[in-house]
Design brief:
Distance between the termini: 26 Å
Shape: globular
CATH architecture of the largest domain: 3-Layer(aba) Sandwich
Number of strands: 14
Number of helices: 14
Strand order of the largest sheet: 3-4-2-1-5-6-7-8
Helix content: 40-55%
Order of helices and strands: EHEEEHEHEHHEHEEHEHEHEHEHEHHH
CATH class of the largest domain: Alpha Beta
Structural class: alpha/beta
Length: 419
Amino acid sequence: MRILCIYRHYWPDITPYARLLKAIAEHLVSEGHEVTIFTGQPGYNDVRQGKQPWREKLNGVDVIRVWLPPERKRFVALRLLSFLWFLGRSLVYSIGHRRQYDLAMYNVHPPILMGMTACLIRSLAGIPFIYHCQDIHPESSLVAGRIRSKVLYRLLRRIDTAVCRGAIVNVVLSEDMRDTLMERQVPLERIEVLNNFSLDSYYDGSDDIPSPLDNPDGHFHVLFAGNLGEFQGLDAIVDAAHRLAEIQEIRFVFMGEGLAKRRLIAAAGDLVGRTVFFCDFQPVEVAFAAMRRANLGLISLAPGVYRVAFPSKTMMYLSAGCPVLAILEPESNLARTIQDEQLGYVAQDSSADSIASTIEAAWRERSCWTVVARDELQERAERIYGRESAMVRWTRLVSEIEMSQNQNQVKSPRDRVSA
C-alpha cells in the first residue's frame, strides 16, 4: 500500500511518538509498503536539532518537511498558529497528491483539529485513514480540568466521535480506552487495541551515558520521568516524600518539564536537594540510562485518566529493567497487568499515605530486585509490550485494510464482533 503519515514531529525530533512512528514506518517499508511522512522541521519542546533536508529518504521512508512558524512551548498563541499552519499545509498537500496514496495515518494531536483535518482530507481527497489515539479527546482535557464548559465539551465530543466513526480503524492503547470509545457508540469493529512498544534503540548497551541517578552512596531512587503536568497527579507523590523524609536513603527524582513543575518545587520545600530532586528535560538516552539505575519507576495518573490514556513510559521503565509503582485505579487494565505479571507494585489508592507505605515496602524488599530479577523483568516486559509482537499486529492490520479495499468494502477491515 501507499501510506501517508501526517505528524508535526519526526526523526530526529525527540518526541517519543516521532520515534515510535519512525519504527512503524520503517517496518511497513520492510513489508513492501510505500510510506511517506509529512512533517515539519524538528523543534519539539524548544529543542533545536538543526535544519534537516526538506525531502529525503530515511531507511526507505520518504520524508517531506515543511516550513513552520517559530514555535515556543510557553507561547500558546504561537503554538496554535504553528499547528494551524501545519494542518493547512497537510490539507493542501493531501489534496494535491490524492492519487498517490491509498491510506493515511494520523496521531490525534493537535486534539480535535487533527481529526477534523483527517475527515476533510478523506472527503476532499478520498484517502481513508487510521486514527492513532495516543489519548482520547476531549475526555482527556475534561479530566485534566482544561475544559469547564459542558456545552463546549459536548460539542467537541460530538466532533471527535464523528471522526472516530469516519476512520477505517481507531488504534487505541488499552482495553480501557476501547471501552471509552464504545461508550460513544463507536463500533467495536472500528477499534483495534494495539499498544505502543518499547524501543530498545533508546540505549546501545553502554554505561557511559551520564545520569542524574549515578548511585555512589547506595540510595534508593524513586524516579518519575516524563511530563510534569496535570494528568499525573504528582502532588500526592511530593506529599509522600514529606512522609518519608526521615528515611534519607529514599530519594525522589522528577525528570522533565511541565505546567506543574513550579508548584511541585514549592510543595517540596526544604526537601529539595535533600531527598527530592528536580532535573530538566533530558534526551531519551539519558532518561533511559536513569531508568536503568533507578530502583523504582513511578507511573502516576490523575483519577479517571486511565480510561482515556495509557502511560507509555511504562514500557520504557520495564525495558530498562526498572520495576514500577503504579498510582492509579486498581481496576484499570494496567494495574491488573502489573500485579498479574509481577512487574512491580500498585498503590492501594492515590493518597499520599498509600503511596508512602508502598514505596517504603519496596525499599524494605529492595534486595529482592537483583540483577537477575531485573533481567527477568525485562523478559516479561518484552513478552507483553515487545516491539516484535507489535509489528506483527501492525502488519496484519494494514494487510487487512488492503484486503478490504481490494474487495471494495468501505466498512471495517474485519468483523471482530462475530469473531
